[in-house]
Amino acid sequence: MTKPFKSFIKPDLKKIEAYIKKNLDPGTSIVNDESFNLYVTGGKKLRPSLALLVGKLGDKDKYNDLIKTAASLELIHMASLVHDDIIDDSETRRKRKTTFYKHGYFQAVNTGNFLISSAIEAVSHIEHQEFHDTYALAMRQIVEGELFQFDTQFDDMQTIDNYLDKIYKKTALLIVLSIKLGAFATNVDRKVLKSLIEYGYNVGMSFQIIDDYLDFTASEKILGKPKFSDLKNGHYTLPVLLLRNKDSTFRSMLKKYSKHRANSEELSKYILESNAIQESKAISNKYLDDALQNVTDIESPIKEYLVEVVEKLRDRLN
Amino acid sequence: MTKPFKSFIKPDLKKIEAYIKKNLDPGTSIVNDESFNLYVTGGKKLRPSLALLVGKLGDKDKYNDLIKTAASLELIHMASLVHDDIIDDSETRRKRKTTFYKHGYFQAVNTGNFLISSAIEAVSHIEHQEFHDTYALAMRQIVEGELFQFDTQFDDMQTIDNYLDKIYKKTALLIVLSIKLGAFATNVDRKVLKSLIEYGYNVGMSFQIIDDYLDFTASEKILGKPKFSDLKNGHYTLPVLLLRNKDSTFRSMLKKYSKHRANSEELSKYILESNAIQESKAISNKYLDDALQNVTDIESPIKEYLVEVVEKLRDRLN
């Protein structure tokens, strides 16, 4: 490997930032400022990075479309964060006060909508039917995923399959979309794309499982938001469901909690003392192993970077 | 004229309703139900009707695209209503409790987003670059219009030009968009389109001016929401600004109200006793006269219907 991934992708991410700055036009209103700040103050830029990486396998003369596609994907991701903060009544995100908390409903609804419309505008010029069909369908599925998440709040009987379907719609879907759109924008070969889509699915699933159990194990400083917030909000993630399936004491505790919604600390403590976190890590690792498998046959220098993304996630995991 | 507009357009509107019902899939969740109910329980369907009407001047074999375009425009309009109700903290709309009021932020943010994504999905298959560029830009301008409206809340020094710019972005823009997209979807001749766009602008401006002064003159039963809500929310519409420009007593009252935000009843009463409403009507009528002028040269049976739309608005006005 000549350069680490971060420095390899840096010039492209700089181009995206310049594009986003030009388009979000910070300095003109609260909404513009909040939008741009959300871009610059954090996030791993996983979605645009994957779109860019996949685009390296395609036509070089489509580079400008690729940049706009990658920017659009990050903008949609940001829109979902801003609206989620309203929905979840969240005070902090990425160690900063949320738009919703600082400026109220008006600015938060509009910031999200401004980001959605900016995302759509960024790619409207791309002449590629499947690109737009795929994007539109995914946007709708993401909203449906939100709803499904709400339907299963405080539902102590939900299955692990339910959970996997939720995290697919919540996270893996947009990561798969990033790979598809990066490929469509630059006309990547279809056979290669098939493996990349599976890679994206596995990376996405792993990513959300890690995110979910970090809510139990990481410090608030690292999380940039309060700990145990999923459990408090009745979002039962993999460690909870795994433990429920095999520990009858915990099953009773969870049933009681789901009914009365008090004493989430007791549950968190019980989970941390069990091996449910370790088991979740093992499942996440299995997805990462599969992701590596998906890219073994790719013949391109970008393969090393696709592997590096997986290894970075594995580091975060441990 | 063979048939009145309402019966002429009815079969097309039925097709749109069938399409929307199929896509919004009522019966499956609160969001789906709220979305579909908003479609069936009201609204003049002005935007889809204009798109359909303009589409009659274009290629007949593009009829399916035209139906989906018209549906998409109504869906975007509905999305803006649902999100507006969050922003304005509105309890009722079209004589029913709002989604926001009945089901809270979560369902309301998601219902709006579901409608936006459904709107985009409806037209993503249409292969027409300018169609998508125009749609994306308009969506962004609509959001910017929302923001501008907020910036001038309780601003008693804003100009009438400010107001006109606001109502353009709030209402006329989507009506103009309906005409453009109906034309693009069916390849309407560009020269004809130019006049139609001006017609749409004039109809849209008039429509919002009427809406704004009905807030003073119509009964709550007709409005389907509380009276004087614009004034209470600090949205100063045409009658307010006209009266401020020429009546120094009112100017002082408005200044005081903008500062202390109390006694909006006193202001409303003063406005109703002045001739500010009459003057607003005259301005609205001028836009309608211009709209009629815009369509004099159109040689098609739809001309009569374009005229009828204007006359319907003039009836609403008086």
From TrEMBL, chains A, B:
It comes from the Bacteria. Its cofactor is Mg(2+). This is Polyprenyl synthetase family protein. One of its GO terms (molecular function) is prenyltransferase activity. The keyword Metal-binding applies. The keyword Metal-binding applies. Signal peptide: none annotated. Keywords: Magnesium, Metal-binding, Transferase. One of its GO terms (biological process) is isoprenoid biosynthetic process. Belongs to the FPP/GGPP synthase family.
